[in-house]
Amino acid sequence: MFRALLLACAMAVSAVCASAQDLQSVLQEDPSLYNKPSRGTTADAVEALLASGADDVATFLERWQAKDVWQHEDGRFVYVTGSDPYTLIDIDTGEEIGTADKGQLTQIKPNAGVRGVIGSALVRFQLSDPDPARRIAALDAINRDGSAEHLEPLAASLEGETDPDIAARKERLLSLLTARFGDTTEARVEAINSLAEGVSLDSRAALNQILTTRSSVAAEMPEGTNVARIRKVDDTFTVDAAYAELAAAGLAPTTVSDADVKSALTANIVNGEVAGVLVADMDDPAARIRAYQSLVDAGQAAPFVPPADREAAIKAHTFFDAYVEPDAAITDAAYAAMRDVDLKVSAMQTADIALDAVSLASIYFLAAIGLAITFGVMGVINMAHGEFIMMGAYTGYVVQQVIPDYTVSIIVALPLAFCVTFAAGVAMERLVIRHLYKRPLETLLATFGISIALQQIAKNIFGTQARPLTSPGWLDGALVFNDVVSISYIRIAIFVLALIFLALILFVLKRTRLGLEVRAVTQNPGMAASMGINPDRINMLTFGLGSGIAGIAGVAIGLYAKVTSEMGADYIVQSFMTVVVGGVGNVWGTLAGASLIGFLQKGIEWFNPSNTLAAQTYMILFIIIFIQFRPKGIVALKGRAAGN
User: Fold this and answer.
1) Any bridge partners for residue 319, and if so which?
2) Contact present, 250 and 302 (Cβ < 8 Å)
3) CB atoms near residue 290 (< 10 Å)
4) pLDDT one-digit tens code per residue, 178-198
5) Backbone angles phi, psi at 79, to 5 degrees
6) What's the CA gap between 263 and 254, in Å, rounded?
7) Residue 558, SS3?
8) β-bridge mates for residue 80, sequence order
C-alpha cells in the first residue's frame, strides 16, 4: 500500500514537472533541431514545442521564422536587442539576463523551406489571434497551402470568431479542407455537395484536385482501382503512343517508330538494295520488315517489333485513367458537383458577356447619338465626328491639369467639353457645312479633310504620345458579383451617363420647342419652313448639339481608353454602323443599333477571343447582310432622311 502511494506521488510530481516545462528546457533536449534546422527535421521540432505546452511557443516560432533567435556560446537560446554588445533577453520570461559580444552569439538563420514549415505551424495560433489582420493572413496561408493538419484548429477557431466576414470565410475554407481531407466519406461528400452551390475558383480547384487522375496500363485491372475512364486507341491515342506506354511500363519490348525504320533503310541503301532486298521491292511492307530485321541481326539498327505484334500486345492490355482518390463515392460526388459547377459557370460567363455587351453598347450609343441627330436632320455625312470625340477627351485632360481633384475635374470637364465642341460644331457648320447642303460627296470630302486637319492640330498642341485622363478614385476597381461575373466601375459610370443622355435627348426632342422644330425639319423641311421655322437655324443648332454630345462622349471614353489625336478614328466606323443599322435620325434606332452591334461584337469575340480584328470583320459582314434586308435600319424614319 505504501509503495503504491509513493508511485502515485511520483507520477503526480512528474505530471506537474511536465506541465511546468519551460521553453528553454524543450530546446535543450535536442538543440540541433533548432540551431541547424532542415526542412525534414523542422516538423519534429515544431511538434516537440507544441507538445510541451510551454508558454510563448507562438512568439518563439514567429521570431525563429524571422531569424530573430540567437544561441549563446554556453548553449542557451536567447533573443537580443541593441548592438554589440547585445542585451540578452530570456525566451521564457522576456526579461534581460545580461549582455554578450557578437563573437559569443550565433544567429540562427532558417532557410526558406524551414520558414515555410514554421509558417504552417504558426497558422493554428494566428487563427485565434485578437488582431483580425493576422487571422486573415492565417486564412490566406491555409488557402494557398491547406492540409489535413489545419482542419482541427480551423474548426476550433470558428466558435470564438466575432467578425462575421472572417467567420464566413472560415466556414468556406473548412468546407474546402473537409472535401479533401475529411475523416469520413459522409463528411467529405457533404462538403463536396456544398461546393457545388457556388462558382468560386477555390471550389473548382478543390474539386479538380479530388478528380486528379493518373494514366496507367495493366494486363488485368488491379483490384480496388477507382477507374475514371478506359482509354481506347483512336486518332488522339495512337498505336505508337499506346505501345510506347506499354514499353515504358515494362510490359512490352522497346521498338522504333515507322519513321525510324524508314530512316535506317534509307541510310543503308547499297547498290540499289538494303540487306539483300531490292529497293524496288520496298513498297511491300513484308519486304521492308525483312530488310530491317536483317539490319537488326547485323547490329546496324535498333530492335523492331512488327506492327502485328504491337497491335496484339496493345489488345492484351487495358489502358485506363485512375483517380488518385481511391474512394469511388468521393469521386462520384465530386464529378457530379463539378458538372453542376460547370453549368453555373457557363451561365455566369454568358451573364458576364452580356454585361460587357451592355457596356460596349453604351459606349457606342454615346459616340453615335450626336452623329445620328446631325445625319437625320441635315443629311450630312460628318467624317470629322470622331475628332469632336477627341476634342472632348483633350478638354478633360486640360481641365485635370488645372484642377487636380479628379472628381471635381470630371464634373467641370463634362459641361466644358460640351461647350467647346458645341462651339466648334457651330463654327464648322457656319463656315463649311451650310455651303454644301444637298451635295453629299463634297460634304464627305470636306469633313474628311477637316478631320485630318484637326488631328494634326491636336498633334502640334499635345504631341503624339497618349495623354492620361484619370478617373476619380471612387471609380477604381470593379463591381464583383462572383469569380466569373464582374464589371468595372468606369463602365458602370459610362452606362449611367448613356442613360442620362438618353433621357435628356428624349426630353429635348419631345418636350421642348427646339425638339419640336428639329422633328419638324427632320420629317419635312419645306413644310416646316412654311410654318415659320428657320431650317438654317435648326441645322446650325442641331450640328452644334450633335458635336457637343460627341465631346461629352470623348470625356467618358477617355477615362478608360487612350487619349491621342487618332482616338476618334477608333469610333467613327462603329458610330456610322450604329446609325445605319439603327435607323437614321432616330434616338431609339440609335439605341437599338448600338445594342445590336455591342452584343454582336462581344458574341463574336467570345467564339474567337484572341482576334478582335476578326470579330470586327465578321460584324461588318453581318451588317452588310442585314442592311440588304432592312435598308432603313431597325427603326425606319419618315421624312427627308427616309426619302434620301
Assistant:
1) 217, 231
2) no
3) 15
4) 999 898 999 999 999 998 888
5) -100, 155
6) 18
7) helix
8) 88
CA nearest 120: which of 143, 101, 90? 143
Q: Reply yes or no: is the peptide bond before residue 153 cis, omega within 30 of 0.
A: no
The top-scoring range by mean pLDDT among 13-22, 296-305, 346-355, 634-643 is: 346-355
CA-angle at 357, arms to 355 and 359, nearest 5°: 70
Q: How many residues does the chain have?
A: 644
With CA atoms as reference, report the closest residue to 83 among 63, 59, 99: 99
Q: What is the DSSP string of 8-49?
A: HHHHHHHHHHHHT--HHHHHHHSTHHHHS--HHHHHHHHHHH
Of 107-111, 219-223, 403-407, 515-519, the poorest mean pLDDT is in 515-519
In angstroms, the CA 540 to CA 580 distance is 22
SS3 state of residue 150? helix
Number of helical H runs and strand E runs in the chain: 27, 12
Say yes or no to pLDDT of 235 above 80: no
The full DSSP string for 88-118 is EEETTT--EEEEE-GGGEEE----HHHHHHH
Q: Cell digits for 117?
A: 514549415
Q: What are 364-386's pLDDT values in tens digits?
A: 898 888 888 887 667 778 889 99
Which three three-digit cell numbers place residue 262? 524508314
Rounded to 5 degrees, what are φ and ψ at 533? -90, 135
In the beta sheet, which residues pair with residue 273? Answer: 270, 278
DSSP letter at 270?
A: B
CB neighbour class for 223 (10 Å; exposed up to 12, middle 13-18, buried from 19)? exposed
Between 59 and 16, the higher pLDDT residue: 59
DSSP reduced 3-state for 230: strand
Core vs surface per residue 313-342: b (16+ CB within 10 A) or e: bbeebbbbebbebeeeebbebbbebbebbe
Interval 292-301: pLDDT, tens: 888 888 888 8
Q: Is the pLDDT of residue 15 over 70?
A: no
8 Å CB contact between 410 and 585: no
pTM: 0.69
- 410-442 in b/e form (b: 16+ CB < 10 A) is bebbbebbbebbbebbbebbeebbeebeeeeee
CA distance 252 to 255: 9
pLDDT at 2 (0 to 100): 32
In this structure, the number of other CB atoms found within 10 A of the CB of residue 230 comes to 10
The predicted pLDDT at position 8 comes to: 37
Q: Does 331 score more than 90 pLDDT?
A: yes
Residue with cell 424614319: 637
Mean pLDDT of all residues belonging to the chain: 84
pLDDT digits (tens, 9 = 90+) for 425-438: 999 989 998 888 77
Percent of residues in the chain assigned helix, strand, coil, to nearest 5: 65, 10, 25
User: Which stretch of 322-326, 420-424, 475-479 has the lowest confidence by average pLDDT?
Assistant: 475-479
Cα–Cα distance for residue pair 405/472, rounded to 1 Å = 8
Residue 65: phi and psi, rounded to 5, are -65, -35
